Design the sequence.
């Protein structure tokens, strides 16, 4: 059996690093992915899904050092189910509505924003699209 998930999104907050009792580094951060589409009623819908990411070892230290809130990342890893429910972690927002976050144990984290990109996080930002000119594709 095998599972893999790949997400691209923006960090919702600065990473938090800690160490296990055995001395292994673990860094946790949240990533928001965005989807924008037009609903059946013709209205534009912005959908944000949150992922909680855990990175371990040297990768955890690197993430803690270079990642900041709002930076774009690509995370490749495996989903981790909530131990109580077997699914995503469900929570209630301050306004009374419910939301869910999905847990990922990172196997690879790629930094997509340069250090000079100090954009503030906006949940409504769409993901960047592929270039439209396909003249340079070698196949």
Sequence:
């Amino acid at each position: 059996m095998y599972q893999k998930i790949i997400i691209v999104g923006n960090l919702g907050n600065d990473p938090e690093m800690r160490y296990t009792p055995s001395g292994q580094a673990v860094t946790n951060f949240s990533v928001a992915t965005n989807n924008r589409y037009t609903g059946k009623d013709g209205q534009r819908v912005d959908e944000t899904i949150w992922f909680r990411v855990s990175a371990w070892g040297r990768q955890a230290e690197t993430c803690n050092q270079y990642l900041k809130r709002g930076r774009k990342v690509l995370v490749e890893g495996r989903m981790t189910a909530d131990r109580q429910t077997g699914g995503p972690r469900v929570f209630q927002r301050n306004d009374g509505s419910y939301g869910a976050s999905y847990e990922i144990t990172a196997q690879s984290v790629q930094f997509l924003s340069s250090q000079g990109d100090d954009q503030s996080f906006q949940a409504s930002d769409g993901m960047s699209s592929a270039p439209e000119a396909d003249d340079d594709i070698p196949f």
User: Anything to note?
Assistant: The longest strand covers residues 25-38.
